[in-house]
Amino acid sequence: IYHGYVSEASPVGTSVATNDSLSTPLAIIALDNDVEEVRIKTYRTRDPQLQFSLDSYSNVFSMSATGIRRYLTLVQPLDRETQDSYTFTLIASDGVQQSTPVTVTVKVLDANDNTPTFANVSYNVNLFTDMMPGETVLQLSAVDSDAGLNGQVTYRILAGAQGHFLIGNSTGVITVAPGVELTVGRSYALTIEAMDNGPAPHRRSSITTVYIEVLPPNNQSPPHFPLQQYNLEISEAMRTGATLLNLQAVDRERDPITYKIHSGDPHGHFALHSGYLVLDKPLDRESLDYYTLVVTASDGQPDGTSTAMVNIVVTDVNDNDPLFDSSLPVNLTVTEEQDHAYVGRVKATDPDLGASGQVHYRLVNHQQLFSINATGAIRTALPLDREVKGHYFLIVEAWDGAVDPRRSRLTLSVTVLDVDDNSPIFTQQTYNANLPENSPKDTVILQLKAIDADLSSNLTYRIRVEGADQEIVELFHVDPVTGELSVLKVLDYEALTDSEPTYTFTVEASDREGTMPPGLASVTVRIMVSDMNDFSPVFSQSVYRGMVAPNAIKGTIVTTVMADDSDPVGTPAGLVRYKVDQEAYPYSASIFDVEEQSGHVITRVNLNEEPNLKFSLVVVAYDDGEPVKENTTLVEITVLQPSVIPVFTKEEYRFPPVSEEAAVGTPVGVIMAAAVNQTIVYSIIDGNQGGVFALNETTGAISTAKPLDFEANSSYVLKVEADSMRVVSSNLRAPSKTNTAKVVIDIQDENDHPPVFTRPLYIGGVAEDAKTFTSVLQVQAVDKDTGNYSSMIYRLIIPPQAGKDTKDSKNGFVIEPYSGVVKTAIMYRNMRRSYFKFEVVATDNYGQGHSSKAEIVVSVVNQLDMQVVVSNVPPTYVEKNKDNILERYVEDQIPGAKVVVETIGPHRHGDGMEQEDYTKSDLMIYAIDPLTNRAVSRQELYKFIDGKLLDINKEFQPFLPPGGRILEIRTPEVVTSVKKAVQAVGYTEGALLALAVIIIICCVPAILIVIITYRQRQAECAKTARIQMALPKGKPGGGTANNLYEELGDNFLVGQKCL
């Protein structure tokens, strides 16, 4: 939102200002992302050449035509008294797209351009000699439409008062002066001036004359209004019955006064009650916004009536909704495939004043497809496709500019007009059809269908002749209008040479009236001649028999039927399915069923039948050939005596766990069932996937049949069944509640898997100044076994150092046996760039079982190998997420490199790095190269990370809080301080050389200086030595630096001594 100010006295061409002092013009800036921006020192950019448009008041204001900053200027003079503010919306456009509208409010500042004006040029007043000093003679009122001091009026008597009358300078009330006695016959002509309080040079004034006649005392004087003219502003929302103004007059004789509205209120909106003006009916500013009432006060005597004038201005409230122009069409059309095409226009008006009467528009729906500008013109935002959608109901909303706006909506019907821009498309990518042999000539094989999305299309179908086999044209025909494909000859499957005779050809559909190419579509048609269904299914038995327990549960398999079909395998005619003939034996069909695919005859319900009953069931076998052929068989089902159905001793058997290392054939347990005078046969009917277990059908003994694996399956649940030999000998089964049981077999875990380390090589680092028992890294091994078999004991195998007695040598590291944490066991001073390589062993079962090994490499480092990563994230947060940062970017340069975090702390800054900032963090890291087993140089580490800061910050945003990022990569402060110390030592050497020259010249006088300087030199050497001793030394040999000075390049200090 932009706010501007302009004086009503400003000439045409004046720019709108940003403040009421009018010192700075209001600049409105709009940028286009399509235009390249160039920033030079301060913010500047190329002119995007945008066009600005105002939704209203374009006759009052205009925008400058060019530049990044555009300015509003006056097109015509303003009058604050007519309108004191302007609110409108501004839109920038590059000719293709428009910006979001912004609101601009311009306040008009007052100029002293109005003169105080009296209602009358002169006034006549009759006074009586009995008027008392201080009594009101007349109240004058001059109106100044200006605001503030410019509209504040001051009154004074210029001439004619003769000292007998006074006037209130702010009220305009003329009174009789103190001590004055009026004389009959005297007359006065008072010249009264009304002046505003604007700036002194620009004040404006006017005058009027009050003629006063002094009369003898009158016992019948008319009532007297305090004012001759009243001015009043009333909101049109004022409630009826509200008291608006006190118009009570004064009668000298105290006679009763009657009040009346004489004129100016034709519709009776106002009433007078005992001298009070009251609102009697609701007001409507839009109907009438100004009333001039003439009111009278009468005491009933002749000439006992006086009048006063009441000027009433009705002010506006936002009580009207924007109203759409009904004369504009609401049924609109637009042609498809046109960008920014004109659709139509709406217009709404609001009779309210100011911002409440300013109308704005927006689209409620389909904003991505249509746009509306400030004038109500509607265009397409992108090309429309009638074939996607041919009609839209577009809802336009109009609202006024009030703080709490009122709204109206209008629904437009937009029809998208068609252009011929589509080719025909077949409804299928390919057409496949089976043509039964011996089909009559002209048999319709299939219906080809192509669709043209355009409204006016006339499609024609034909078989493509070019490149096609002539036999196709002789065998098949397509109707050019309907697209029906028919056969022209009778085909015999057996007479065809191919094993699977198929005809493939192309059919085309063309739009004969299409105007936009291409207007042609094609599709592949594949016709397969099929053999007819020559054979019916044949059952293997004419009668099937089954037995069932009297209390068999639902789903129990009674018997199985089987039928074969001699038609070719894999064809629909050779596929056999089963169903029950419901009409042959209805009761049997209600309690028994047959599975469609398998042919299992099963119980449909839980049985409760009498023993020895027999049921007959007709089962139908049918194929899917054309036509369908079927056959039937009879199934006889006998309900067994309960005595011949074995009963298990338990409903569930649970045996001791079986070791997963048990040999094949190991006994698991024995199940047992009993029946009266029956030989029992046992079987496993479910749960033995893979045949892991075997069941002796005679004894009920269960044993392992295959090797077991606890990790693959830790428990088995078998379902077993016991049947009498009578039932089994009939190749039948009779499951029931009593002759089935559950067997639970748990597998016992054994220590048959060795531990496996999470990685074959662990890389870590340790600082030269690390204390004993500092944690270096943690190893971990996992074991597929459970319990103690997966519990580890860790130990280290550290080879002795070359050239040292193994009895006297001390291992450099130890490991916590249960956690796998490797810790330091010695001090590593002066061992920088050394490394230790040793093995770790993990043994399961708390050290009593299998073992595995892994390698550990630990490199000795100091701060010369480190960089500090500074981030704007607190240290506690970095501590939680440190493993998610940086390592991959080092591995991109050195495969397998290990990034080690040395310390995490608050950001140190200031002189001497003594100040700490806990809102930021310093992360000190180094990296170890797996090829050399030594730390990557500090300079290389800096290049690897600093060059990728943007990518690192972007990739690790999910691991950081909002706004979190890495700020910089810097050198540790100890390295920086050593650089400064080296420079200081170098300056001392130069000073000593200069002193030596002075000694030669000055000789004896310089001896004292030399002695003093010598002592200072010794002190500085001692300081340098202390610095060297405080810093870690490098490993001798191999061309590596021996201390920090050498690493920094100041080798000239090496070998110098302090004498």
From TrEMBL:
UniProt entry keywords in alphabetical sequence: Calcium, Membrane, Repeat, Transmembrane, Transmembrane helix
GO molecular function: calcium ion binding
InterPro entries: Cadherin-like_dom, Cadherin-like_sf, Cadherin_CS, PCDH15_12th_dom
Localisation per UniProt entry: Membrane
Transmembrane segments: 991-1014
Occurrences of domain Cadherin (ranges): 6-118, 119-225, 226-324, 326-426, 427-539, 540-648, 658-757, 758-877
Organism superkingdom: Eukaryota
This protein's name: Protocadherin-related 15b
Lineage, uppermost ranks: Eukaryota, Metazoa, Chordata, Craniata, Vertebrata
